[in-house]
Design goal:
single chain; 170 residues; mainly alpha; 58% helix
Length: 170
């Protein structure tokens, strides 16, 4: 016996917009959006510079620090320009992100060194997993910066998870 059922799925009208309630009178005002998250028109040069700021992390594989200098330099050039606030925000995020990658590289390198020199002790054996975690974190951070560079080259606003919030007040 064939049994056929009709399933109907209703799709909501996209995009679904929700309204944030206003704070009560006399309550704290909502935090203003960062200046680089504006609705300004992003031209080709701005997209190129934002993408290069994010992609400059790959220079660190060869030089160790040059990517940090490139992203910081882009931020220094664009931070006081009225038409370059978006680029400055993207470059500052890339600079902070690269500092995090540098910290992961230092932790991983120090853990490998300690693990190699103290391999015969329990403490030395504990450093190898830490070095592996730092290494995988560093690989993930490099790949995520590649995604950020693609977003910057296409002119889309991009925010790193923790670094983006830290870069807002600056």
């Amino acid at each position: 016996m064939d049994r056929q059922e009709n399933y109907s799925v209703e799709t909501p009208a996209w995009p679904v917009v929700t309204q944030t309630p206003l704070p009560p009178a006399g309550g704290p005002a909502p935090a203003p959006a960062p200046t680089w998250l504006s609705t300004q028109v992003i031209d080709g040069d701005d997209r190129l510079m934002a993408g290069l700021a994010h992609a400059s992390i790959w220079l660190n594989l060869v030089t160790g620090f040059l990517g940090l200098a490139v992203a910081g330099g882009i931020w220094l050039v664009y931070r006081n320009r009225n038409d370059g606030q978006w680029v400055a925000g993207q470059a500052l995020q890339a600079t902070f992100w690269q500092l995090g990658v540098l910290a992961a590289m230092l932790v991983g390198g120090a853990s490998m060194w300690l693990g190699a020199h103290l391999w015969w002790t329990i403490i030395g054996l504990l450093f190898f997993p830490l070095a592996c975690v730092a290494g995988f974190a560093m690989i993930g951070m490099f790949l995520y910066s590649l995604y950020a560079a693609l977003q910057g080259f296409s002119g889309r606003d991009f925010r790193y998870p923790i670094v983006g919030v830290a870069a807002d007040p600056l």
